[in-house]
Design goal:
By secondary structure, the protein is an all-alpha fold. It contains three helices and no strands.
Length: 89
């Protein structure tokens, strides 16, 4: 048996910060930034943050800085690899 909900789910609209964060992560995945060199990543983030600042004018400098930190962390691997993936010893 399934339990019925007494009230319907409430739809909430994401905040401008949440929208910008989701858009940034989507751009990171689509643009291949994860495989880029650190210099190219910095250049890409500089350009992308300018774009996001224009697109989401409700975000102040502090929120934009937080957004950039999240994006840069997203691009860093959790564990550094010492050998290529799939290489056997």
């Amino acid at each position: 048996m399934t339990k019925k909900r007494s009230e319907p789910r409430k739809m909430s609209t994401p905040s401008p910060f949440e929208q910008a964060r989701d858009e940034l992560f989507s751009h990171i995945l689509r643009c291949g930034v994860l495989e880029a060199t650190p210099e190219h990543q910095k250049e890409w983030f500089d350009d992308t943050m300018l774009y996001l600042a224009e697109r989401y004018d409700a975000l102040d400098e502090q929120r934009l800085a937080e957004l950039r930190v999240l994006g840069e962390r997203y691009c860093r691997p959790v564990v550094a690899r010492s050998a290529p993936v799939g290489a056997s010893a």
